[in-house]
Every structure is written in structure tokens, then in C-alpha cells.
Amino acid sequence: MQTTIEIDKASIILKLLGDETRLTMLKLMDEHACCVCEFVEIFQISQPAISQHLRKLKDLGLVEEERRGQWIFYSMNNNHEYYAFIQSVLKQLPNQNYRIKKLEEEGTRISCC
Amino acid sequence: MQTTIEIDKASIILKLLGDETRLTMLKLMDEHACCVCEFVEIFQISQPAISQHLRKLKDLGLVEEERRGQWIFYSMNNNHEYYAFIQSVLKQLPNQNYRIKKLEEEGTRISCC
DNA sequence: TAAGTAAATAATTATATACTTATATATCAA
DNA sequence: TTGATATATAAGTATATAATTATTTACTTA
């Protein structure tokens, strides 16, 4: 269970986690594959802002993308070298599934993805 | 062992941890009370830069200061509301005690503290 | 193939961050 | 009380960050 990670690597990852939007995105992607438009709906910020957050996560290899037709779904990369480290943080955060449920209730999830 | 922390609180703490200098400082302070001049010697940055990092950590209550004569020693606040959360990160980082040993060998630790 | 939708990228901007130098404050010791 | 040392604070600067709007690219479907 106990992992080890060099301090320079850890600080780079923690800096990425140290943004409320990205941290919430990661917590969601840990359970669900999500598309950009869902995040736009959830966080109420512009589509490019979401894309840019995802870009940073992807550049570090923390998330993976998968195109499904018109949409691109993002999800946690479980094979990342420091996945266990990231998990050790995420597992302490309250579940954010209510955000997905809210999308479903509003029909925003279905309409988009 | 498992803790819970709201996502907004977590992101604020993680942002502080997401700087290599501060993360290393915290790892050191988790075991040793350290004074500002030791950090200056270790990180080879200016004294005000160290003071400013410590200020941020102190503003969040993560560290405590204790004056001993001319010096002010900083150490981890074990009673912080999110101490367990911080620990869950720090315990995965390699021990940094070699940095203290190096100071002792150089005589920098004794001369200062 | 043309129109519509999803996402990425480019360019810009405002703010935050991490540092510097200069100065102020606090303690110690002669 | 004066000089030396340790730390904090102020002010300034260069860079990083997180957002925006405008545009491009990629896919789908009529």
C-alpha cells in the first residue's frame, strides 16, 4: 500500500492537484469517463478553460483520452507510474458523483454524451 | 487511518505542497525543528524567500514557530485539522535527513543553531 | 458535400507566485 | 548601549497560471 515518490516528481503532481477544478475533475474521472462538455456544464467555465486543464493532466500522463464518435472521453490512467500516489490523495476526498447525477437530472448528460 | 477532507480545503493545502521547496521543508519539519538559516543553507535561496515560504505555511497553521534565543525554530503542527491528510502525502516521500546531516558535517548547523 | 457540434489551439489578459534587494525589528553579547 | 546576527516585512520584478475570446480542426449527419 505504501508508495514512494521522489520529491521533485511529487511536487509536480501536487501542483496539478492543487487547483480545485482539476482536483474535482480527477476525482470524477477516477470513477467515470467524462467528456469536455460535461465538465463545462459542471464547472460553468469556458470550454477552452476545461481543455487546458485536461491538457495539463494529459501532458503528465495522468489521464487518457478516448474518442467516441463526436466526443472525446477522458478518464484516469490507472497505469500511471504514480497512480497509487494520486489515489492516496483522491481516496480521502468526498465522492463527487452527485455532480454527475445532477447532469443526468438536467438532461445535460444525455444530450451531450 | 482513512481521513476525509473537503475538496476546496484539500486543493488549498495541495497547492502549498505543490512547490518543491515547501514540500521538502515540510518533510524536514515533520522530524526536526528547523530555523530559517538552516533552510537558507539547504536551499541556497535568499533568507526572505525562505521566510515567505514559512509565512504561507504558518498562515494555514501547518507549522508552528518557537523562539529560542536569537533563533526561531519552525516545526510541523501535529494538531492541525488536516495533519493526517498532510501526513498521508509526506509519508510517501523519501526521508530528507541527509540534508540535516550535511549541515552538521559542514558545521553550518552548529554555527547557526 | 455542406452544416452543425465537439474539442483543441492561438492569442490575449489579469492575477498569482516566487524570487530579488533594501530595510525594519528583535535578540544577544561585548 | 553599541555592534552583530537572525528573522520579518516592504517593494519591485519576472514568470507562471487560469481565465477569456476568436479561430481551427475533426467528426457526424442530412
Report on this model:
Two copies of one chain form a homodimer. In chain A, 58% of the residues lie in helices and 12% in strands. The first copy, chain A, has helices at residues 7-17, 20-29, 36-43, 47-59, 83-90, 97-106, 108-112; strands at 34-35, 63-68, 71-76. The first copy, chain A, is globular. Chain A has one domain (7-112): Arc Repressor Mutant, subunit A (Orthogonal Bundle), CATH 1.10.10.10. Chain A is an alpha+beta fold and 113 residues long. In chain A, β2 (63-68) and β3 (71-76) form a beta hairpin. Chain A starts with 6 loop residues before the first helix and ends with a helix. The structure holds a DNA duplex (30 and 30 nucleotides).
| Biggest sheet features of chain A | 3 strands, antiparallel
* Unreliably modeled segments of chain A: none
Radius of gyration of chain A: 14 Å
Total number of beta strands of chain A: 3
Spatial strand arrangement across the major sheet of chain A: 1-3-2
Average pLDDT, all residues of chain A: 93
Feature tags:
homodimer; 113 residues; alpha+beta; Arc Repressor Mutant, subunit A; three-stranded antiparallel beta sheet; 7 helices; 58% helix; DNA-binding
Strand and helix map with partners:
Two copies of one chain form a homodimer.
Chain A: H1 7-17, H2 20-29, E1 34-35, H3 36-43, H4 47-59, E2 63-68, E3 71-76, H5 83-90, H6 97-106, H7 108-112
Antiparallel strand pairs in A: 1-3, 2-3
The structure holds a DNA duplex (30 and 30 nucleotides).
InterPro entries (chains A, B): ArsR-like_HTH, HTH_ArsR_DNA-bd_dom, HTH_MetalResp_TranReg, WH-like_DNA-bd_sf, WH_DNA-bd_sf
Keywords (chains A, B): DNA-binding, Transcription, Transcription regulation
Protein name (chains A, B): HTH-type transcriptional repressor AseR
